Amino acid sequence: QGDCGGRECDLLKTEIRDLQEQLKALKATVGKIQKAWIFMNGNSAGEKTFQANGSEGDFETSKATCSQAGGLLASPRNSAENTAIQQIVVRHNKAAYVGINDIETEGSFKYLSGEAIGYSNWAGGEPNNLGTEDCVEIYPDGRWNDRSCNEKRLIICEF
Ligand code: 291
Ligand code: CA
User: Fold this and answer.
1) If pLDDT is split at 50, 70 and 90, which confidence band does 4 have?
2) For atom 15 of ligand 1, which residue has the closest CA?
3) pTM, full prediction
4) Which of 10, 34, 102, 127 has its CA 20 to 30 A from that of 25?
5) Which residue, by CA, sits nearest to atom 8 of ligand 1?
6) In DSSP terms, which residues pair with 72 in a beta bridge?
7) In a 10 Å sphere around its CB, with 0-12 CB exposed, 13-18 middle and 19+ buried, how is residue 107 labelled?
8) Complex ipTM over 0.90
9) What's the pLDDT at 67?
10) Ligand 1 cavity residues, CB under 6 Å
């Protein structure tokens, strides 16, 4: 099925082989840059890479900053991702907001996508909604606290 022949076909085959080689080289280069970048100032878990540039902001600023950078406010969906984010918090010695909140419905914590969270790492006694706490910060010990969305926190994005 679909056998092709002739000079035109040979040219196409050569062209495809050439593109395949270029793609392989490109993947290797991107892989190296990713590793170097993570080594410098980031962290990774699975397919995600997490980065902080030292800037700080409240929840809305943190969200907007990551979105403007083409990323997403770090949103830990499992313990490996949580640990990767925690290590950046430790490095900067500054808690960070994660992309989780219960702004819409008190007590119903969701990702920025609106999906209900499927993983949590609350500190003892949290979430307690003290006053009104609809955002979530991650401490240097990796545990979470629901917190006012108006504090200044380290901005960590995922890409
Ligand atoms: C701070 C805020 C709250 C947090 C609370 C607990 C207090 O409020 O960070 O979001 O839930 O601390 O850590 O826990 C104990 N054991 O005191 C304190 C307000 C008075
Ligand atoms: Ca709290």
Assistant:
1) confident
2) 125
3) 0.89
4) 10
5) 130
6) 158
7) exposed
8) no
9) 98
10) 125-126, 128, 130, 133, 145-147
